[in-house]
Amino acid sequence: MDFSSFLTSLSTSFIIFVILMILFAWLSTKPGNAVVYYPNRILKGMDPWEGSRSKTRNPFAWIREALSSSEQDVIAMSGVDSAVFFVFLSTVFGIFVLSGIVLLPLLLPIAITERNAGIVDSTGKNAFDDLDKLSMAHLNNRSARLWAFMASCYWVSFVSYFLLWRAYKHVSDLRATALKSPEVKPEQFAILVRDIPYSSEGYSRNEQVDTYFKSMYPETYYKSMVVTDNKEVNKIYEELEACKKKVRRAESIYSDSKKEPNPQGVRPTHRLGFLGLLGKEVDTIDYCNEKIHELTPKLEAAQKETLREKQLASALVFFNNRTTAAAAGQCVHSQIVDTWTVMNAPESRQLLWTNLSKTYYAREIRQYVVYLIVFLTICFYMIPIGLISALTTLANLKKLAPFLKPVVDQAEIRTVLEAYLPQIALIVFLALLPKFLLFLSKAEGIPSESHAVRAASGKYFYFSVLNVKYAICRLIYTVSNLRFFVGYGLELSRIVPLIIFHLKRKYLCKTEADLKEAWLPAELGYATKVPTDLLILTIVICYSVIAPLIIPFGAIYFGLGWLVFRNQILKVYVPKYESYGKMWPHLHVRILGALILFQITMVGYFSIKEFIYSPLIIPLPIFSLLFAFVCSKKFYGFFQTTGIEVASHDLKETPNMDLIFKSFIPPSLNPDKLDDERLDDGGASYDLRPGLDAYAQTQDV
Amino acid sequence: MDFSSFLTSLSTSFIIFVILMILFAWLSTKPGNAVVYYPNRILKGMDPWEGSRSKTRNPFAWIREALSSSEQDVIAMSGVDSAVFFVFLSTVFGIFVLSGIVLLPLLLPIAITERNAGIVDSTGKNAFDDLDKLSMAHLNNRSARLWAFMASCYWVSFVSYFLLWRAYKHVSDLRATALKSPEVKPEQFAILVRDIPYSSEGYSRNEQVDTYFKSMYPETYYKSMVVTDNKEVNKIYEELEACKKKVRRAESIYSDSKKEPNPQGVRPTHRLGFLGLLGKEVDTIDYCNEKIHELTPKLEAAQKETLREKQLASALVFFNNRTTAAAAGQCVHSQIVDTWTVMNAPESRQLLWTNLSKTYYAREIRQYVVYLIVFLTICFYMIPIGLISALTTLANLKKLAPFLKPVVDQAEIRTVLEAYLPQIALIVFLALLPKFLLFLSKAEGIPSESHAVRAASGKYFYFSVLNVKYAICRLIYTVSNLRFFVGYGLELSRIVPLIIFHLKRKYLCKTEADLKEAWLPAELGYATKVPTDLLILTIVICYSVIAPLIIPFGAIYFGLGWLVFRNQILKVYVPKYESYGKMWPHLHVRILGALILFQITMVGYFSIKEFIYSPLIIPLPIFSLLFAFVCSKKFYGFFQTTGIEVASHDLKETPNMDLIFKSFIPPSLNPDKLDDERLDDGGASYDLRPGLDAYAQTQDV
Q: Where does a domain end: B257, B285, B303?
């Protein structure tokens, strides 16, 4: 690539970014769009524009806001996990800035002033163009100038160690602060017990768990909730909820129809058959009300039966103080250690209920099977894609779907299809991959959503790094350096969600609930965001000394990412769960992995340059391993569990154990519907879904 | 080796064994020898011959006694560790008996009836003699008879799995029973805390530990004992104790001398210089009494100073119930997990005090350095031995030590020395090796004696197995099959300790304490006994299918070993500590290792025999790995720590926390000598050294 075309492409995408930013500034001030640009604030019951100057339409106002927001704001709006994501972005940004400040002024002049004999490559053309003159490749073999590049390797490494160490310490403090908070958090009073052995004494599971834990914790044990097989009850519950929604929709349509010339209105109807297109036509409101009437007692019966008959071999056990719960979640309880296995309970909203009752060895076997599948996917993913491409050649398409023939026979469409069919197959595969990996991670038997996301993210990262060719093609000099401006512009301006929201509002939404569903934002999606960032980090850090010009682009990518996502996290995205920074060790290890890859690459590169002092670089990967070892021994244990020191901090109030217990009951076994002893009605509840509750309050007002 | 010489050698050593057994039956009935043959019973305050018929001088009576003793007897006399050792011996014995019952009648006829073409080896001589006809080597390549040998491999493997599984379960039960015993065991109320961070708040270590744990365990925390640097106080204490002993000795000599013609007696004297041979002559009693007078206040001052000024960064922390202590020993306490590291406390008598204050990273570094040293020792141990042999050739000896010349010049001595000098160097090395390995294991920073012994035993095993040539030479067909009879005979008859005891009694012992010191038995010495047994097991199991005739010898080795050591454990050896069976996982893994080695050997051997179905044996090592995995997941965790379920069993009495605390005070900081608050006088004590205390009682009576 020559320098001018590089600059053209860079400035083009920068201009697109600026246009999108101006668009964002304009669109976000319109009150009708507030639910698209400020959903997180709205859900928290805050005024969207409170304290902000966005109304001035200054396209840079959001930058000022993002920069002036503190870490405490992020934690308050979006939790510790989001704060940790910013620590990651700022740490990597810091590494690139500190590296760039030294490497650019040092290495670029050294490289460009080297008198190179003009190495001629095999094609007979001079292999170096403008950009390459600025890289280590331009140096002569055995040049004394290589010393500067070696020193740079040490600089980049030590800057990374320093910032990573500070970051790990900081994240550990964030986690500790959150865990020792005086707020009552239900999951801090519970442990998850799995692999409950078969009891021969004729106890029910409930009695068995109670007896077992009461004998060990006579004073602090509160109650247990045995995990049940909820498949049937969930099905009835969902059917019931769907009916209720349908009734509300139908009533809204009916009342709307009354306002029009016809004051009687038109009662909505639907058909019972396939997709509502065939079969008998019925009055929707009457039919659904009848169905609700029919399903409600059925659900109650199913709930009772489930609680009594479908108890599985795992349970949530509650203690009336969090120190005991934290300790109990870490201890070996049984003499046979593959029974009564315990862990600190995850939040109730991120429990993967169907995984809880998988047995120890089932989990182990599933894990290894999944690893094998992922390994095969990484190695051989081109095979199914190739097959699909082969099957979907135009000739085959025409044979398989003759009705497409008139379309396909048009010359332009034909050209496009022929050129892009294989790429489309690849794109579809890559789009589905994260979902597939998340599905696999859940199939491992992992008990919590956040853990599954971490596992999927790890798999995605390995896929990216190990398919180096794909990764390099996709990222270096194309996505990573140029197009990410466009991506950030789209992220910030939320053009696509905005259009979808307005279309839905116009044509589909009938009730308030429909409308809310239309704008309710997704979570950030760490499972794909994090591996992509890590991949870019890996590539930039690997080339940082070889071609230092890449560093500013890495810095811009992470710096701008920090700004854009700071805005999005504070105003848009609503996290689905909180894992108190458990993502960090995962990130830390992979950043270090990237660093080691860089160091090993450099060992090789110095050897290629025939630099006789190249062994001097060998200590670097050893330092990195030592650093990883020390960090893991010093910090990691606290991310796996809750230190007693932290859990033993005082609470601001005596915990209401009944509410804590209820917060873990899955919705299909809803307490409001049952008169079972353990499920009696309660007035308040612990704020598990702050967003939704706060929204409900604002709606009431 | 031909068959007749084999039989001769076998019968010779058997006859020696029988002679030694008769000698044992005769000697052990003499009352004067009771302290040599029944020290364990005497120390427990029991009648040596109580309930036994040894007085009948029936040389087989001890066998009946050993066979009729129950596991409970062993635990009562010698603890769980000894019982576990017998589980090991009987499991291996069982493996060999069950294998032998099937393999001998099946394989020997198959091997001997094979019409072998008479393979002629490179020396031109028929390579097979009588014994070899009974082995797998005698089969023709690709013979269908190899199927029987393959089936035998499966039989041996599955017999091993079955017995090992039963044994692991049984040992786990033994451990659980001991740990849930209603007796108060001081170590179950304590945890060992290391890596206490530096406190900037001006607290003393004691206050720091108290504050930290009191906040987490407000109701169950009792007290802490900060580990101190006892080097100086130990030195003074030992000096004082030596003086006291000297006084007692001198007084005894003085009073003895009075009985003789001279009624005034002769006051013993000694010289103050080098080894008591040079310098001023002083009256021993006066001199030592004066010294005691001088040292006692010095010791008290040193004790106070040590407790106040020399507190180190580790502590024993006591809780007033064992459930909390068991839980606290397993939990992550601190946010920074390389500080405040905890573990369940070992018994006070096996604490390695000087290791307790080693910091986390010091322990890690020491561990790796020790591993490196052991690795180098295993690989290159022949080099120092070779050097020593070279230096100690006769010519060199004469040069270095001219005074030896007249001895060395004698023809017979010269021949012997020339032939055996290198072997002597090797023997000396091998004799010192276990001590060296134990020293290295302690240098790793391991906090307890039993753990250090396990570590040393592991290292010794690797040394034996990896130096295969040395191992095979030493054991197969020489030690393992023939000479072990002699070894067992010597063990049983205790000829050597008997002679040493009588010599000491006659010439050295002056006081009761001296006498007791002379007969006080050692412990069994698992650090060398176990690796030797494991090595023999490895060799026998590896050859079990190739040469099934080895199996009976293996069975006799372990069966006879069981009998002899049952006798010795019940009557002779006094264990120095109790680890509640923590040795078992160590044994289990190594037995499985031997099995896998056997299976891999067989894969190779079947391939050499060009047996086309040899891949059918490949599943076996995989089964073994799976078996190891399941065992480790099912049982191992409980051997690393104390399950809460087990610790929460009721005690028969409220524990006296003061006594528990005192039982951990090292002798040099003896409570009787100090009026410090934490060290006030107490009347009773928990039975930490049951042997010694019981002995003291019998002496009083």
A: B303
B104: burial class by Cβ within 10 Å (0-12, 13-18, 19+)?
middle
Identify whether the C-beta of residue B454 lies closer than 8 Å to the C-beta of residue B586: yes
Residue A652, in any domain of the structure? no
Mutate to test the interface with A, among B323, B340, B644, B646 (most CBs of A within 10 A): B644
User: Closest Cα of chain B to A59: distance in Å?
Assistant: 43
- Chain B: give the shortest CA distance to residue A327, in Å: 6
pLDDT at B606 over 50: yes
Residue A625 and residue A623: Cα distance in Å, rounded? 5
Tens digits of residue pLDDT in A120-162: 444 444 444 566 777 888 888 888 889 999 999 999 999 999 9
The reply to whether A489 and A603 lie within a common domain is yes
A398 and A287 in a common domain: no
Last residue of a domain, one of A621, A637, A653: A637
Nearest-CA neighbor of A302 among A228, A357, A227?
Answer: A228
- Token readout for B463 is 């040394």
Tell me what the mean pLDDT of segment A564-582 comes to. Answer: 90
Q: Domain range holding B250?
A: 233-303
- Cα separation, A157 vs A617, in Å, equals 11
pTM for the whole structure: 0.85
Residue A241 sits in the same domain as residue A177 = no
Contact B541, B602 (CB under 8 A): no
| pLDDT of B205 above 80 | yes
User: Residue B391 and residue B554: Cα distance in Å, rounded?
Assistant: 40
Residue B274 counted as domain residue: yes
Rounded distance between C-alpha atoms, residue A333 and residue B642, angstroms: 8
Of the candidates A498, A494, A495, A489, the one whose C-alpha atom is nearest the C-alpha of residue A563 is A489
Dist. CA A372–CA A670, nearest whole Å: 39
**Does residue B246 lie within any of the structural domains?**
yes
Shared domain for A397 and A255, answered yes or no, is no
pLDDT at B652 over 60: yes
Compute the mean pLDDT over every residue in chain B, rounded to the nearest whole number.
83
- Interface membership of A359 toward B (CB under 8 Å): no
Other C-beta atoms lying within 10 Å of the C-beta of residue B364 = 17
**Same domain membership, residue A257 and residue A176:** no
The reply to whether residue B331 touches residue A326, judged by beta carbons under 8 angstroms, is yes
Query: Cβ of A327 and B323 within 8 Å?
Result: no
Is A517 in the same domain as A613? yes
pLDDT band at A621 (very low <50, low <70, confident <90, very high): very high
Return residues 120-159 of B near A (CB < 8 Å): none
The answer to the question of residue B394 being in a domain is yes
Q: Tell me if ipTM is over 0.85.
A: no
Number of structural domains found in chain A: 3
Is the pLDDT at A693 greater than 50? The verdict is: no
Q: Read off the tokens for B619.
A: 């599943």
- pLDDT at residue B402 greater than cutoff 70: yes
Task: Choose the closest CB to B638 out of A176, A337, A637.
Answer: A337
**How would residue A681 be classed by pLDDT, with cut points 50, 70 and 90?**
very low
Nearest to B325 by CA among B658, B686, B580, B648: B648
Q: Which two tokens stand for residue A560?
A: 């701008």
pLDDT confidence of A11, banded at 50, 70, 90?
Answer: confident
pLDDT tens profile B542-557:
889 988 888 998 899 8
Determine the distance in angstroms separating the CA of B401 from the nearest CA of chain A, rounded to an integer: 49
Classified as helix, coil or strand, A351 is strand
Give the amino acid at B85. Answer: F
Same domain assignment for residues A372 and A488: no
CA–CA gap between residue B151 and residue B153 (Å, rounded): 5
Report how far residue B232's alpha carbon sits from residue A559's, in angstroms, rounded to the nearest whole number.
Answer: 60
Interval B49-78: pLDDT, tens: 665 554 556 777 888 888 999 999 999 988
Neighbours of B233 (CB within 10 A): 25
